[in-house]
């Protein structure tokens, strides 16, 4: 039986130790069967577009950054080595930028895991569905 998007996300989350990625998966699951299109919208339009309701206001981005600072920092330095990340614009608060960066990075990681999803890697879920 083919796994639904929600089942896939739950399986990925169960094997993930990155709290930021887990948070993105939880947000996506809240969108139920629209999770895939929601993730793709966040990847295409970014957090700055308002696609992530919990990261619109500065107070929210600051709180999000503080909660996931370690994960965001690791993602930033990993990405900085791979690509030339531009300096944060002075007109954008750095909490906003880093919160959006971290969330968008995690969305990319989740989408990559979905694109490479192999149900055989999640044997327990096969038993539950059968």
Automatic annotation (TrEMBL):
It comes from the Bacteria. Residues 23-96 form the DUF7222 domain. This is DUF7222 domain-containing protein. It comes from Paenibacillus agilis.
């Amino acid at each position: 039986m083919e796994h639904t998007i929600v089942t896939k996300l739950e399986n990925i989350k169960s094997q993930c130790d990155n709290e930021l990625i887990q948070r993105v998966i939880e947000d996506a699951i809240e969108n139920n069967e629209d999770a895939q299109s929601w993730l793709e919208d966040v990847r295409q339009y970014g957090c700055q577009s308002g696609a992530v309701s919990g990261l619109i206001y500065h107070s929210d981005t600051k709180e999000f950054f503080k909660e996931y600072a370690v994960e965001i920092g690791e993602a930033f330095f990993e990405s900085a080595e791979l690509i030339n990340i531009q300096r944060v614009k002075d007109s954008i608060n750095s909490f906003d930028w880093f919160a959006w960066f971290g969330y968008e990075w995690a969305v990319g990681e989740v989408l990559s895991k979905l694109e490479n999803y192999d149900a055989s890697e999640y044997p327990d879920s096969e038993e539950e569905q059968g």
